[in-house]
Design a protein that fits this description.
Distance between the termini: 48 Å
Number of strands: 13
CATH topology of the largest domain: Rossmann fold
Strand content: 5-15%
CATH class of the largest domain: Alpha Beta
Structural class: alpha/beta
CATH architecture of the largest domain: 3-Layer(aba) Sandwich
Helix content: 40-55%
Number of helices: 15
């Protein structure tokens, strides 16, 4: 072992050098994880949007919310607060949507970016959200979006590569909602509804607020213009994360893990982890290379074939050659159906080709077997010599296709 140690070290050195050399020249793959959270600087996180948002409203304070609206809503929010939601699924219950409506009526603004709305939200806003799973458009400028007049000075188109949602709004009241933007198909994906002294802003594509989109070419302008309609006197921004994690939390609450419940008991928790540690130590101390005895496996025996031979001998002793021949045909056809899954109702040229293709047996030999079967099925008497010939044909087929 000591003599081979230098060679082993040399091989490891060569492998490491190869990884460093070839790995450094390999094109870096884009991180395609879709998180939509402010802590991620990856392409599909929202770190950039979170950092830019307070700069658009000088003097405002920003806080992160992870609770339902009833825990943060107060009457003190009197027209100077922006509630910003970005999620893959906006699914409030009746109480939450009514609180958000009261929040907007008092003069605040709610900006919701989500490709999927729950039934309560769709019913409240009186619209349908048409969406499909997001798709990856590659590295070229494929999807494009448009911000429209009259809110914006001119219709402006923005393009971007990467992920996109095919999501839009339909069946909404055009008198109640104003269309602020569309997708490349001309379908509304950004709309506004004024209620009381505030407004709801609804956007269907969260990827347009991701790091990748905002930092691509001049797309920062899209982010700034999308929020430019909100009053500059906004003093407080609530960055919401409640609707990002709510679905996951609801699933855990409706299906609590039995182990999680047991681990909440301190005595059981200590006993459980102690058992895990002792089991790990036992496995580590007993890790030996023990070669188990390899059992001798006998070749599978075709008992059905032996049974057929026994029955054949009985019929042969009675000199009932025709009956025995018919039994051999019946067994042969059943063997073809069960092993090769071929229909034996019609024994024609197509049957011969299929059987030859699946079994690897010569077509001419199979044709001879078929001719023998026809003789057995149409003849009233079979001689011992014919029976022997039929038997040899069938046995030859079994041996060559075993």
């Amino acid at each position: 072992m000591k003599k081979n140690l230098p060679y082993i070290l040399l091989c490891l050195l060569v492998i490491v050098a190869g990884v460093l050399i070839f790995g450094s020249t390999h094109e870096k793959e884009i991180d395609k994880r879709v998180t939509l959270t402010k802590n991620y600087k990856s392409p599909y996180g929202t770190y950039v949007a979170h950092e830019l948002l307070p700069k658009m409203f000088p003097g405002s304070i920003m806080e992160t919310n992870k609770k339902a609206p009833e825990h943060w809503y107060t009457l003190e929010n009197n027209g100077s607060t922006l509630f910003f939601v970005i999620s893959q699924h906006f699914d409030p219950n009746e109480e939450e949507i009514l609180l958000l409506n009261r929040f907007v009526t008092n003069g605040n603004n709610v900006f919701i970016v989500a490709p999927k709305f729950g039934k309560v939200a769709q019913r409240f806003f009186g619209l349908d959200v048409n969406t499909s799973n997001y798709f990856y458009g590659g590295y070229a400028d494929s999807p494009n979006v448009l911000l429209k007049k009259p809110l914006f000075k001119e219709d402006t188109t923005y393009t971007y590569p990467g992920f996109s949602f095919s999501s839009d709004y339909s069946n909404f009241d055009r008198a109640k909602f104003h269309i602020l933007g569309t997708d490349e198909r001309g379908m509304p994906n950004f709309i506004k509804a004024s209620i009381g002294r505030g407004s709801f802003y609804l956007h269907s594509d969260p990827f347009l607020f991701s790091n990748y989109f905002i930092l691509y070419k001049n797309n920062k302008d899209y982010f700034e213009k999308s929020l430019s309609d909100i009053t500059a006197s906004t003093k407080k921004i609530i960055w919401d994360e409640y609707y990002i994690y709510r679905l996951e939390d609801d699933q855990k609450a409706s299906n609590p893990s039995p182990l999680r419940v047991l681990l909440s008991i301190p005595a059981f928790k200590w006993a459980f982890w102690l058992a895990i540690v002792l089991l790990a130590l036992y496995l580590l101390l007993n890790m030996k290379r023990n070669q188990r005895i390899i059992p001798v496996l006998s070749k599978p025996k075709n008992e059905s074939l032996d049974f057929a031979k026994v029955i054949g001998r009985l019929y042969f002793d009675k000199q009932d050659h025709l009956n025995l021949s018919q039994k051999m045909v019946t067994y042969f056809l059943e063997h073809i159906r069960s092993k090769y899954l071929i229909n034996t109702a019609t024994l024609n040229d197509e049957f011969v080709k299929k059987l030859s293709g699946k079994s690897g047996y010569d077509e001419q030999e199979i044709q001879k077997i078929i001719e023998s079967i026809f003789i057995i099925q149409t003849t009233a008497n079979i001689s011992q010599q014919q029976l022997s010939g039929f038997y040899q044909q069938f046995q030859k087929f079994y041996k060559h296709t075993a």
